[in-house]
Every structure is written in C-alpha cells, then in structure tokens.
Design brief:
183 residues; mainly alpha; Fumarate Reductase Cytochrome B subunit; heme binding; membrane; Di-haem_cyt_TM
C-alpha cells in the first residue's frame, strides 16, 4: 500500500496542516462532549466535569484561533458570507475546489460548533447556580443547544466523508497525523 493510500503521504508529498494543539483539541472535544452527552441524564459530577472540560477546550481553541499556527487561525479559514455561498453552490454542483486547510463550509461549521458548545456549557453551568437551579426553561435551552451540537456534528462528519470521497483523501487520517497531501 502506498503512503498516499493511507491518507497521510510521505513528508515530501504532504504538508503539516493541523498542528498538535488542533488535533488534541479536536479529539479531546469529541471525547469530552460525547461523554457529557451520554451521561446527560444521571451523570452528576462526571457530566459537570466533562462540561467544564468542553468549556476549557473551547476557550483554549478561541485563543489558539488568534495565536496559533497558520491553518488554526480564524483569519485563515472563517469565510465571508459570499465565499460560503459560492462554495456551497459549487459543492452542490459537484465542482468545489479542494482546500489545504478548512474549506468555507468547514470554517463556518467550526464557528457554529464553537458558539453552540459555548452556549451548551454556559447554560449547563448556570443550571448549577442558585439563581437558575431547577429552571425548566434554562434546562430546555441547554438540551436544545446540546442536540443542535449533535446535528452540527452529523453535518460535519457528512462533510468530511463527502470531501474525503470527492478529493480522494482521508481527512480522518489527516486529523490524526496532521498531514495532508500538497496538491
């Protein structure tokens, strides 16, 4: 099997795109949110700890979005509404171009997920305070936000699978190794 068929390529034909922080953040977030969601009904202290871990990871990622490596910086992947619309039209027509970093749809999804994860975490924290303890409205909002994260995750995974197929590269492997092919 060639190195490209594994999805990571060798150093001469690939580039480090996702730095170690981005990869640890990504998979840490998958674990922390997934665990918190699974334990949502009776998770108690573990659910709360995982929720705080999510908030900590999101805060660190926001900082890294301004100070991190090239492809991690918001300035390099957050699309304008026009760029997002143009990319979406091209994608629906099967003519989207390949990006070394995040494509405009992926960039928009990152922003949506960061906002929803923050809303989920903040509403969860508020539910532990005296002012909002037992608030059914806030508990409902917390659940809606968490479920919206799941919808976005499903769209994200679908987009990753579509882009992997269309551009013939293993994006899951890229998020493990950090490397994508140069062309």
């Amino acid at each position: 099997m060639s190195s490209l068929s594994r999805g990571d390529g060798d150093a001469s034909r690939s580039t480090l795109v996702w730095d170690l922080f981005v990869r640890v953040f990504h998979w840490g977030l998958v674990g922390a949110f997934g665990g918190a969601y699974v334990l949502s009904e009776d998770g108690g202290t573990i659910h709360h700890a995982l929720g705080y871990a999510v908030l900590g990871l999101v805060a660190a990622r926001i900082l890294w979005g301004f100070a991190g490596s090239y492809h991690a910086r918001f300035a390099n992947f957050v699309p304008t509404p026009r760029a997002f619309a143009e990319y979406t039209r091209a994608m629906l027509a099967g003519r989207e171009r390949r990006y070394l970093g995040h494509n405009p749809a992926g960039g928009a999804m990152i922003i949506a997920l960061l906002m929803l994860l923050t809303a989920t975490g903040v509403t969860g924290w508020l539910l532990t305070t005296n002012a909002f303890w037992g608030s059914e409205a806030l508990e409902t909002l917390h659940g809606v936000c968490a479920n919206a994260v799941l919808v976005c995750v499903a769209l994200h995974v679908g987009g990753v699978l579509l882009a992997s197929w269309r551009h013939r590269e293993n994006l899951v492997s890229a998020m493990l190794t950090g490397r994508k092919r140069n062309d």
